[in-house]
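tool_call predict_complex ligand=coenzyme A
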Amino acid sequence: MSWKEYYAARTVTAAEAVGRIRSGDRVVVQHACGEPSYLLDAMTANAGAYENVEIVHMVAMGQAGYAQPGMEAHFRHNALFVGGTTRGAVAEGRGDFTPCFFSDVPGFFEDVLPVDVALITVTPPDEEGRCSLGVSVDYTMAAVKHAKTVIAQVNRKMPFTCGVSAVDVTEIDCFVPYDAPVIPLAPPKIGAVEEAIGKNVASLVRDGDTLQLGIGAIPDAVLKFLAGKRDLGIHSEMFSDGVVDLARAGVITNRKKTLHPGKCVATFLMGTQKLYDFVDRNPDIYLAPVEYVNDPFVIAQNDNMVSINSCVQVDLMGQIASESIGLTQISGTGGQVDFIRGAARSRGGRAIIAMPSTVKGKTSKIVPVLDAGAAVTTCRCDVDYVVTEYGIAHLKGRTLRERARALIAIAHPGFREELKMEWERRFHTAF
Ligand code: COA
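tool_result ok
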C-alpha cells in the first residue's frame, strides 16, 4: 500500500477518531501553540462516553473544556506544566500537577507514564509521506513513538518546520483534516520596568553569544534591547516573534555557534502569524525533540551559552521560586533548570534570572524567605546572575552574606530597609 492509500484509508471525522479513546486511557496531548484544539473539542463533546480518562500535557493555550467543573467523572487532567487555562483546575483539585524537568518528559512515556492515545497536530504530508509536527516537537515526537493509538488533526495552516520534526504517515493511526489558524501568543507589553530590566540583561550579553529565552514577558522583552549586538545565536527551548525581528536585522546570524552553526535551534515556538510564516520550511530553523534540545550536556556544547529566565520570588540565599506562589502551582519547572545547568557547563556560559523587583509595585520579589510551600525551581547552588530593573547581582561562588547584600542592592528601594534589618539579624553585623 502506498502512503497515499494508507492516508486515505485512515482519514476519518473527529467524532470517529475520538471514539477510539477508551475509559481509563492516558491521553497525551501536543501542547502550547501546537495544541490540536479541534480534537480536544470533539473529545470533550464525547465526554459521556468516557470515565476516568487522564489528560496529560504541558502548556494549555486552548479552552481546556475537559478540565472544567462538571467533567470530573470523565476526565482527570495531569499537568506537567500549569498553563493559564488549567490553573483553576489544578488549584481547585480537579487536576493534578507532576513535577518534572522538561527534558525528562519523553522518557516518562517509556516507563512511568505509558501512553494509550496521542492527540497531535500535523501538517499535510509532503511528497514522501512525512508530516511535520509544526511548532511543537518537544515531547510530541516521543508521544507518537510510544502511543498505542496516534490521532492527528491535519492542519494546512500549521508551518512545516525543519530539523528533526517530521513523522511518517504510517506512524499515525487516524487523520482528521481540519484547518484552523495556529494559536497566537501576543508579544508582551513592555513598560518602563521591563525596559530597564532589558537593558541590564543586555549588558551581560556579548557579541557572538548563544541565547536561550525562557517563557513569560521578561525574557521576550530582553530581545528588544539586543539590537546593537552582533552575531548572536539561538539554542532555546522556545522562542517568539522577537527572534524574527533580530534575524531580519542581521543581529541573530548563528554564525559563531559551536553547535548547529547557522541555525536557530528550539523545541517549540509560540508567537504570532509573523513567526509562523518565518519558520515555515525555513532551513535555518532547526526544531528537535526536547530530550535533545534541553539536555544540559547538549546545551553545554554551545560556547558562550546565555540562559535568560524569569521567576516569582528569590530569597536572600539565592533560592529561586519560578513556578508556584506558596503552595499554588502557577506554571512548572519547564526548561529553566535544564538551561541553567547547560549554561553553567558551557565555556564562557552565563545563567540569568531576570524579574521585576516587585509584584505590580506592591510586594517585593526579593524576600528573606520564600512564601510557605513555594517550590524551589533553581537551587542556590545553581543560581548565577539575578537581574532586576535596579541592577545585577552575581551570586555564583559567593557566600550567603555576600549574596544577600548583592540581592538587597537590586531590590526595590521601598523594601531595602526591611531587608537590611533581616541581613543584620541573620549575620550579626551592621549592614
Ligand atoms: N507573589 C504573588 N503573585 C505573583 C508573584 C509573587 N511573588 N510573582 C508573580 N505573581 C503573579 C503575577 O502578578 C501574575 O498574576 P496575574 O496573572 O494575576 O497578573 C502571575 O503571578 C504570573 O506572573 P507574571 O510575572 O505575569 O508571569 P510571566 O508570564 O511573566 O511568567 C514565570 C513568569 C516566572 C511564571 C515564568 O517565567 C515561568 O513559569 N517560569 C518557570 C518555567 C521556566 O522558566 N521555563 C523556562 C524555559 S521555557
